[in-house]
Amino acid sequence: MIGISESVMQFLLALIVVGPLIGAVAALLPAPPGLKGTSPDQAVLRHGVVVTGTILLAAIVLALGFDHDQPSKMQATTDISWIPALDVRIHLGIDGISLPLLVLTALLTFLCALHSYFKMPSGPSPKAFVALILVLESGTLATFAVLDLLLFFLAFEMVLIPMYFLIARWGGEQRTRAAWKFILYTLLGSVVMLLGLLVIGLDSGTFDMVALATDNGRGLTTSVQVIAVLAIGIGLAVKTPMWPLHSWLPDAHTAAPTVGSVLLAGVMLKMGTYGFVRIVLPITPDGMREFAPYLAAFAVVGIIYGSLACLALARRGAKGDLKRLIAYSSVGHMGFVLLGISTMSPTGVNGALFANIAHGLITGLLFFLVGGVKDRTGTTDLDTLARESGAALYGRAPRLGGLLAFAAVASLGLPGLAGFWGEMLALFGAFEPADDLSRPAFLTFMAFAAFGTLLTAAYMLIVVRRVCMGPTARPAAAPDQPAPAALSDEPASATLPAVPTPADEAQAPAADAQVSTAEAPARGVLADVHGYEFAAWTPLVALTVLAGLWPAALLGLTDPAVQKLLTGGKS
Q1: Residue 415: helix, strand or coil by DSSP?
Q2: Which of 183, 202, 288, 311 is most buried as measured by Cβ atoms within 10 A of its Cβ?
Q3: Concatenated DSSP letters for 526-540?
Q4: 112-151: pLDDT as tens digits
């Protein structure tokens, strides 16, 4: 779109991958260089915003400089020998498949840093929090940019420790159990995945993903491909997560702080499905054909199971947690991504990649909104929200209620919004799978998956009706009754001193004349969307609408690259 030299593109991609790591080290220094604040805590939080904002700006410039006429070509490539004995190289590059995920990761991380600047989760020092967010960003961006199997594994593992500590140290109830469950599941899956990557690299004599994809499995026997797909697939399926390897996800989301849930759902789950598209489909196509029907079957079970679990949580009297419900919805949505991949057809794989981006935008917005609801009401329990503190959200906080309803209908796949196209294309891919796959089996899978879309609509509309459209809560008790303490994402025992911000200082003189967030539930009034929330949520709303109305902007990037991957390097 704009003329940028290849050397500048290489520098930008290297900066995007390494920059957050440098920022993480700087965050741990006594005072982040060049950043002042009214307190050290505010300075380090501002440092996080500046670093993630710089990375987002670099990602946008990289996207503008990307040659959109050749999206199947690897661009901004760097290829440096690292371990000659194993032919392991520091090989970076982007194409139409990885570029959207790179920009999505940079955007969501910046929005999380911005949100945290104004609403820091309670817990230990903000220094560690900001450093962990930046390490997590670096690992995720590297996963989408590296083109060497061993580097991919290192980047894939790099995100586990930061997310573990974000849950364990800044999480809510049951955070220790949830963090341990997350790390054990993902580490065990990764060990198995490493064996599969080594089988491919040692048998073929190279770990270079571009060379292996161009060979399209011709240098690997079918038995080697089957073993590799089984091993790699297990590791990727845990991270996706695929039923029945999903049980760590609801606990992790329920316990994680708001920004942890946004990053977990918005970018980390995409690493698993990206691995299927980047590694399994082009490098081991024969092995993938053997397992494709089973992958589709597990995907469809995940769609139905996730939807039924959400329906059970949404029904009256079930004591369902709203964060847990959205976590189970991710199992269903990622099932559509896996179904599209399993078809091994251009239509299905393009649908999977589109659904990846749509899920990151919509579910990231949903977790932001649920965090906002909890900040105001002190709970995410659906029965409590519907019966007491959060009823009639439209009337008590109309902008917040409207945004929650918007995110819900986007999640259920309303035509004209981003959630529609990915799931529809995945279903079309199942209607016409690759030639070597059983069409009757995939037609059956398509029918069950289509039924899953009806279940998704059912539970999302129930959530909107109960949380946003319930009867108005009773007025507050007498004025002399003390108001409940403000509740954040975290337990009160871990509360940090508030970090003053310019907005806080400007509003302080008029505090007595306003209804505070803490007092809102008791008076039957909720604070509506704050300025920092508007800044963090608006880009996700806008992109959800843009992707829904103009899907060609994304499909024009992915389709040529998918065609090249599925045909052995020929555009």
Answers
A1: coil
A2: 288
A3: -----HHHHHHHHHH
A4: 999 999 888 877 788 899 999 999 999 999 999 999 999 9
Closest CA to 545 of 452, 406, 408, 442: 406
Q: Which long-range contacts (CB under 8 A, 24 or more apart) does 199-203 make?
A: 199/224, 199/227, 199/228, 199/231, 200/149, 200/224, 200/228, 200/232, 200/283, 200/284, 201/86, 201/149, 201/150
The answer on pLDDT for 291 being more than 70 is yes
The better pLDDT of the pair 221, 485 is held by: 221
Task: For residue 146, list its beta bridge partners.
Answer: 92
Read off the pTM.
Answer: 0.86
Instruction: Supply 162's token pair.
Output: 């930061």
Question: 11: which residues sit within 8 A by CB, 6+ positions away?
Answer: none
Alpha carbon distance 352, 555 (integer Å):
11
In the block, which residue shows the tokens 């598209």?
A: 277
Distance CA 533, CA 530 (A): 5
Torsion of CA 77, 81, 85, 88, to 10 degrees: -30
Residues 6+ apart with CB under 8 A from 391: 385, 467, 470, 471, 472, 473
Coil, strand or helix: which one is 318? coil
- What pLDDT does residue 530 have? 83
In contact, 483 and 519? CB cutoff 8 Å:
yes
| Closest C-alpha among 159, 43, 71, 115 to residue 555 | 71
* 80 DSSP β-pair partners: 90
AA identity, residue 334:
M
Amino acid at 278: R
Angle at 321 between CA 446 and CA 488, to 5 degrees: 130
Residues 535-556, mean pLDDT to the nearest whole number: 93
Bridge partners of 78, per DSSP, are 92
Sign, CA torsion 403/406/407/408: positive
Q: Hey, what are 335's tokens?
A: 């099932």
User: Among residues 330, 416, 320, 315, which one has the least CA distance to residue 366?
Assistant: 330
Rg (CA), the chain: 23
CA distance 296 to 284: 17
The two structure tokens encoding residue 166: 């974000």
Lowest mean pLDDT among 236-245, 293-302, 392-401, 456-465: 392-401
Q: Give the integer Cα–Cα distance in Å for 554 and 138.
A: 24
| Encoded tokens for 459 | 């539970």
Q: How far apart are CA 321 and CA 467, in angstroms?
A: 12
The structure tokens listed for 236 are 């990727």
Structure tokens at 289: 């054909």
Q: What's at 549, amino acid-wise?
A: L
Of 254, 267, 241, which is closest to residue 322 (Cα–Cα)? 254
